[in-house]
Design goal:
319 residues, Purple Acid Phosphatase, chain A, domain 2, six-stranded mixed sheet, 7 helices, 18 strands, globular, binds fe (ii) ion
């Protein structure tokens, strides 16, 4: 990386998919990048119980019951569950039934599995990227519990850029924020618009006015086209229009949009809305959302080349 040229790979919303995380770590070498950034919602949402019957195991993967008769079959299936973004949990029917009945016990087990998986991912990152030139930034998103922060912060190979101004070079700096405005699901890092505005304002006070500014903010700007999500009815089901088409509406952050309009960063990286892959211009700022297809094991990303304080080129990737 010279001060004039930086090649950035950005992906987001892999929601626990281990195969997508490994693809993300490989992206630096594969796309010959200087910087790789994961923009939030890195942890999964579900536990898959794997029942231990002594000489065989039973679990449900993708709605199908599987009987695993050897250690090799078990290991293969545990990995398949992790690659789909869920957390396999070895247990027996009685223990699992007791966990299901007790929400605090369920929370404890879920949190333990999340932490263990992020710890394992950090080890993969350290094995892959130690002594490499590529810089790796991994940020939490609104879906991620605050408990993962200390794990991310414990690494000296990856950097958690959340709520920081990071200097990618001495001429390029990145303002990062891993939150969202309030969603219908009330996720751990959903915060009101006013708080997003305050957080950005606090970070803007630390910005070097002589350097190029980039944004990396989990939630996209409001009404930018890269924040269009299915409209939900009172039962949280997608609304369907008169012609049978899915109704969509903008759900991004008004505070993020306002900040982009005022401060005009060179580029602005976002995720959060999986189906709104694309780019959008707000004034002079080019905003990106690479989308997400983590449940298919596909890593969607965007590769951006900066040269002489300009965006020289960009391409969306899928693989
Ligand atoms: Fe999100």
């Amino acid at each position: 990386m010279s001060n004039d040229r930086i090649r950035i790979f950005f992906a987001s919303d892999i929601h626990g998919s281990e195969v997508c995380f490994k693809k993300f770590l490989n992206a630096g070498e594969f796309y010959k990048c200087d910087v790789i950034i994961l923009g939030g919602d890195i942890t999964g949402k579900f536990i898959v119980p794997v029942y231990d019957f002594g000489d065989y195991y039973v679990c449900k993967v993708g709605g199908r019951e599987e009987v695993l008769k050897s250690k090799e079959e078990l290991e293969r299936t545990l990995q398949k569950i992790r690659d789909l973004g869920s957390y396999p949990y070895l247990t027996n029917r009685e223990l699992w039934d007791n966990i299901v009945k007790d929400s605090s016990k369920m929370e404890e087990v879920f949190n333990k599995l999340v932490i263990e998986s992020v710890e394992r991912w950090i080890k993969y990152a350290e094995a892959k990227l130690s002594n490499k030139k590529v810089k790796c930034y991994i940020m939490p998103g609104n879906d991620d519990s605050y408990s993962i922060d200390s794990v991310l912060d414990s690494s000296n190979v990856i950097v958690n850029p959340n709520e920081k101004i990071i200097h990618l070079t001495d001429k390029v700096q990145m303002l990062s924020l891993g939150y969202s405005n309030i969603t219908p699901w009330k996720c751990p890092r959903d915060i009101p618009e006013e708080e997003i505005e305050e957080k950005i304002a606090r970070l803007m006070n630390k910005v070097d006015r002589n350097s190029i500014l980039l944004y990396c903010i989990h939630v996209p700007p409001y009404d930018s086209g890269i924040d269009s999500a299915p409209e939900l009815d009172e039962n949280m089901k997608p609304r369907v229009g008169p012609g049978g088409q899915l109704m969509v509406k903008p759900v991004g952050s008004k505070a993020v949009r306002k900040s982009i309009e005022i401060h005009q960063p060179l580029l602005s990286l976002h995720g959060h809305i999986h189906e709104a892959r694309g780019f959008s211009k707000i004034g002079k700022t080019l905003c990106f959302n690479p989308g997400s297809e983590y449940h298919e094991g596909i890593l969607r990303g965007v590769l951006i080349q900066l040269e002489k304080n300009k965006i020289r080129d960009f391409i969306f990737t899928s693989g």
